[in-house]
Every structure is written in structure tokens, then in C-alpha cells.
Amino acid sequence: MLSKKERQLLQYLENHRDSYTTSKQLADYLSCSDRTVRTYLKQINEVIESPTYSNVLIIHSKQGYGYQLEIMDEGRFQEMMSESTNLDGMSDSHGRYHYILNKLLFEQAELYFDDLADELFISRSTLSHEFKKIRRDLSKYNLIIESKANKGVYVLGDEWDKRRFIMDYFFRDNFFKSMHNYIGGNIGQSPISLEELTLIVLDECREANLKLSDFVIQNLVIHISLALRRISEGFRMAPIEELASELYQAEQMTAQKILDRIYKATGIMCPKEEIDYITLHLVSKGKLLAKESHQDEEMQLREELVSVLESSSLAKEYQFQQDSQLLEGVVTHMTTLLVRLKTKVHLENPLRDEIREQYSQAFELTRTILQEMPLLSAFHISDDEVAYVALHFMAAMERLKEKYKYRILVICATGYGSAQLLRNRIERELGNMVHIEDVIGYYDLSDARLENIDFIISSIDLSNLVFSVPVFTVSVFLTSDEARQIKQSVKEPRFSSRPTIDFERQRFSNLETLFEQYFSETCFMKVERIDKESLLQEMAKQLSLGEAPDFAGNLLDHIHQREQMSSIVFSERIAVPHPIKPISNRHKIGVAIVSDGLKWNEASPSIQLVFLPSPSVYQNEGMAQLTSQIVALLEEENLQQEMLVCQTFQEFKEIFLKIGDKK
User: Fold this and answer.
1) Which of 11, 97, 294, 435 is a plausible cystine mate for 289, CB 3.0–4.6 Å?
2) CA pair distance 566, 497, nearest whole angstrom
3) 453, 383, 468, 381: which is closest to 411 by C-alpha?
4) Neighbours of 416 (CB within 10 A)
5) Angstrom distances, CA of residue 205 to CA of 163, 179, 202, 220, 246
6) 3-state class of 524 per DSSP?
7) By mean pLDDT, which of 74-88, 104-118, 152-166, 602-616 is the weakest?
8) Pairing relationship of beta strands 455-458 and 434-441 according to DSSP bridges
9) What is the DSSP secondary structure assignment for residue 584, as one 8-state letter?
10) Can you list the alpha helix ranges (DSSP code H) found in 519-550?
């Protein structure tokens, strides 16, 4: 796979493929030497000469002119670039979100929209979507995104508010939760909390305008926390001679200020040697890496680490190679580890024995990984250092536990007290299996709120609405029986396809009888070409039989209101429009099959199956089961194809009744 720098090089050549580009131009663009550019080009050629990417592209070289890119297979080229992006954890929205915020709040460099889109290999529209979420989250801290021609994109607001956001986003969830068990828990017994220590480090680094990533700060906090324990147990270290330089005065002064504040908070006086080690962390991604050899070492460390993690069966089991926080944290730590190994400085780890005995699996896995990395295998790495790196893998294991919790949305009435009561009951009864993303009122429901949600727990009856995720209707007290039924439901193979599970209703055993109560041939239509509004008007007209004269118009108004709440398009092919509240005298479900597809919106240009449930104002027993069948259809591609070619209502009925039938 390609590294980040190699992708940037290819991206530059792609943007300038109408002409030759010299190695000096590439070196200036990548902020490296001509020799490093040639190394990148050699590695790229090894990738494109492999069987996987043969006949995808050629890099032409012409003496005196430079290099020119020829792409023979555009689709495979984009696939190659996309697959390589996964190594940096930026292939999904969360990874890009984290990367952009790191750039804005830590590196504080000039950041331009087009350059960022190229760097992330995404379109401007995708990047605009990412910034929309960032603006929304920053606004909660009185921060805004500004953009100027000569300054690029930057965060505007009070420095105190920026630090509050940094603490909440970068550390409270991603860092503290996973490290408290080891550093801040029974093992560590640190004289200062991780939160307070992080605030001190963050304050002093930002005051000194040191442009450090969150991973550098996390590593530094771990180091200082262990150093305080080490000092209290009488361990001392030799100074690092390589850092005795006037080049690092700003970093050394910041290190001294950090230790001064720690002394005021704890009464622990740190020796001068600790200033050297803190300074090493502060320069590890800055001036120290300005040297080409350090840049090459960092790139090599990253590639070797990913390679070992991908080849290790045990590491694959934990998906370490996909954990960008682990990769960045370990590579950041290894840059300082290499300095210690080369200068033969031994780092005592006060947690060595506890980690080796209580977390032996993580310890031995870490030792194996370090031994298999060629750049480190030439050195003897002590158990103290192995235990230090093992902390990162132990934290990754903790994050993995959190990752596999169900992400839920809790919907309550507007009363704050009842909302908190339900939250507390959920955390008590289901805390080991769910993570509550938010607790909201009914009218706060939106597409943004539903993003990445696994299921909804609601104290309000939502049975008249259809969602693409399951809904559990419970009391605000969440009884033990309700909690038990939720646990049982999520174990079912088709759990993700069940839209509504209401504990006050009984499921119909005869699906065919239920079908005949809701569906009818008069509310079934098959068309070839039609637009969205015309289709909805025709379906509303069919459903209006036996209703009030103004029913069709009211139904359409309520459908539009529901769609404003959150999307009713559930797949590329299926839409389920329905009113925001029941208005029918009698429950019905309309069906339309559009052979040629219709444009529902910009994101859904080819909808072919439309289900329009219209619940009754009186009773809708069994509708939840039918809407569950509709959502289950999303996973049954073969049945969708059968529906599209069916010619009669009877054929449709036979296909519908087969949904979920695995016999």
C-alpha cells in the first residue's frame, strides 16, 4: 500500500499530468529532499508493478524534464488511492473529522480548502459536509470557522473556549476512558489526575505556540504520569546529550513551566533530567523531524508497524491495524524510543511488573511486534520499554470494547427529570452493551441525530413512524422485563432489520391475515415513468377512498413534515414516505413499483419501490410488524428484483410474504 507522502506525490502528478514535473518541484511540494522523492518514486513503482495494480498507471521519466503520470485505468487508480487511505484512518467520516480538527486546533497551520480536499482524496462537496459537522460542534463552544484568501481556513474564538473543546473532544472520550484503567486507576496511583495533567500540558504548549498533535500530548501525559510515580520510587535517569542544544530553548522552557506547575499541584520536585525527556516529546514532531533522516525513520516505523500488525493473526483479531489512534500513538512514542535506544538511555517503568503479570497477553504481543520491526530489531528493548508500548495496545483493547457497544438514541417527552430518569435506568440495566449518544425530545429528531445510531429507545409511542433502525418503546422507569426483552431482541439474527418493537403489543402469528388488513389491490400501482410529486399525489388519491374530502392534501402535507424530520429513503431503491401523525379513519399501506425509477432527491436518483403507510387515528395493531417486513426487505436483494418484475398484486403479495422466510 502507498504511504501518505506517496499518495500526495501521485496526487500532485495527477493534477499536473499534462506536463513533466521535476524532482525539485516534487521535493518543494512534499517539503523533503530530491533523494527522498526518488525513494518515494521507487516505492510507488514497486506497488504499481505488482500483479494487483499492473496496467493501472505508468510514471514516465525523462532526463532533464522530470516525471509525468499516465493513468491507464482511472477506476483502478482511484481504488488504489482509496485503499491506501485506509492506513491513515481517513477513509471514513470520523477519521477525516479528527484529522481536520487536529489541523485546525493543534498544528494551527495555514489550511486551504482545495489543498485539504486533495490531501484527503475527497471532493469539495464531501469536505463541505465534514465542515458542516465541525461548525455545528464548534458552535457549542462559541467557536466559528472563518476563511480568508491569504490565511486559509481557521478557528475563530476565545483561547479558553478552544481549550475546552480540545479537552472534551480529543481527550475526555478517546484518551481518558481508555487510560484511566491503567494510569489513573489502581495500578498508577498517580499523585495528579490525568485530566489535570493534560490541562497543564495543553495550556503551556498552546501558550508557547508549539504546534503538536493530540497524539504527542497524549504520549507526553503518559510519560509525565509515569515519571511522577518513578520519581516517588527513587528512580533517576541520565540526561539525553543530544538535546543539549540552543535549538530547543522554547521547548525546554515549556518543559520547565510544565514541571513548575506540577510541583505547585503535587509538591513533587522533578530533576533536570525530566526536562530533557519532556523536551524530547515536544520536539519529536517538530524541529527534530525537520532532519531528513528522522522523516525517513518515522515513515519506516509507520510502514513496519502496519506490516507487522497485518501479518499477525492475534493483532488482526483485535483489528489493531485499523485503529488510527493506536498507530499514531505508537509511532509517536517510537520516535522518542529510537532516540533512547541510540543514546543507550534506560527508561525505568514503574508499571513494568504489574503489566507483565496482570496483562501478560498484551505484554507478550507488544514484545513480539517490536521484535518483528526491522528498524527496532537491531536493539535490545528492555521490559520497561515493552511495558510502555504495551499501554497503547491495552488502551486500544479498551476502545475496542467500547466500539462494539450499540449506539443508541433516547427519545423522551420534554421533561428533563423523566429524561434523566430513563437515562439512568438504561445505564444501570444496559450499560455494558449500549452507549447513549444523546437524549432528545420528539421534535428534536433529525437525520443528523440518527446518523450512526443502532437503535432507538423511546418513552413516546413512535409506532406511527417508520425508521431504518429498530425502535424500542418503554416506560420512563425501564422495567427489568423491558430491559430483558431488549437484550433478547438484539441477539436475534435479523435484529438490525426490525424497525419497531413495542412491548405493549402482541405480534400477529398469521402474516397473511395481517397483510390483507392493510394492503389492497386498489392501493397498488405499477408505473414506468413518473416524477416524485405526481406519484405521491396518485398514491394519496388511492388511499383517500372512504376518507374526508381534504384527506389527500392533508396526507401529502403530513408526509412532507415527516420528511423534514429525517429521511424516509432507506436504500438506493426503497422509499417509505408516511405522515408525521395518523390521520386516516382506517389503516392502509399503499404500494408503487416504478420500473424505470424516479428521482426522489439529489442523493436518491433511482427509487423503484415506494411503500406509503397511512396509520389510523383509532388503532393500528400489527402495523409495526408490517413495517418491520418492509425494512427487512432492504437486505433481500433477490426479493427486490422479483418485486420489480412482478405484474399483478397477487404476485406482489406472494413475494412480500416471503420476506424473512429463510426456509
Assistant:
1) 294
2) 18
3) 453
4) 11
5) 11, 21, 5, 11, 18
6) strand
7) 74-88
8) unpaired
9) B
10) 532-543
Q: How far is it, in rounded angstroms, from Cα 469 to Cα 471?
A: 7
Query: N- to C-terminal Cα distance for the chain?
Result: 43
The label of the residue with cell 488502551 reads 395
Integer-rounded Cα Rg, in Å, for the chain is 30
pLDDT given for residue 68 in this prediction: 92
Rounded to 5 degrees, what angle do the CA atoms 258, 261, 264 make? Answer: 155
What region, left, alpha or beta, does residue 655 occupy, with left being phi > 0 and alpha being psi -120 to 50 degrees? alpha
Distance CA 365, CA 510 (A): 54
Q: What SS3 class is residue 469?
A: coil
pLDDT at 509: 46
What are phi and psi for residue 318, nearest 5 degrees? -95, 0
Tell me the C-alpha distance between 627 and 617, whole Å: 17
Residue 59: the pLDDT is: 92
Grid-cell match 490531501, residue found: 119
Cα(188)–Cα(315) distance, integer angstroms: 26
Could you report the per-residue pLDDT of 308-354, keeping only the tens digit for each?
A: 888 877 776 777 877 778 888 898 888 888 888 888 878 888 888 88
Cα separation of 255 and 260, whole Å? 9
CB atoms within 10 A of CB 249: 10
pLDDT at residue 622 in the model: 81
List pLDDT tens digits, range 274-311. 888 888 888 754 444 444 445 567 778 888 898 888 88
406-460 pLDDT tens trace: 889 998 865 555 677 788 888 888 887 888 888 888 777 777 788 778 899 998 8
CA–CA distances in Å: residue 633 to residues 161, 492, 496, 572, 627: 47, 16, 12, 13, 10
How much helix, strand and coil, in percent to the nearest 5, is found in the chain?
55, 10, 30
Question: For residue 543, which phi and psi values (nearest 5 degrees)?
Answer: -75, -15
Which residue, chain included where needed, has cell 493483532? 315
Cα(532)–Cα(592) distance, rounded to whole angstroms? Answer: 11
Residue 661, number of CB atoms within 10 A of its CB: 9
Residue 205, amino acid: C
Say how many C-beta atoms besides its own lie within 10 A of residue 168's C-beta: 13
Burial (CB count within 10 angstroms: exposed 0-12, middle 13-18, buried 19+), residue 554: middle
Query: Average pLDDT for residues 192-202, to the nearest whole number?
Result: 87
Contact 474, 503 (CB under 8 A): yes
DSSP result, 90-129:
-SSHHHHHHHHHHIIIII---B-HHHHHHHHT--HHHHHH
Distance of CA 497 to the CA centre of its chain: 22
The answer to whether the CB of 211 falls within 8 A of the CB of 108 is yes
Q: What is the spatial distance between Cα 26 and Cα 22, in angstroms, rounded to a whole number?
A: 7
Q: Which residue has the cell 481518558?
A: 176
Amino acid 242 reads: E
pTM over 0.90, yes/no? no
Q: Which domains does the chain have, with CATH numbers?
A: 4-88 (1.10.10.10), 93-157+191-231+242-283 (no CATH), 288-402 (1.10.1790.10), 405-502 (3.40.50.2300), 511-656 (3.40.930.10)
Average pLDDT over residues 481-497: 73
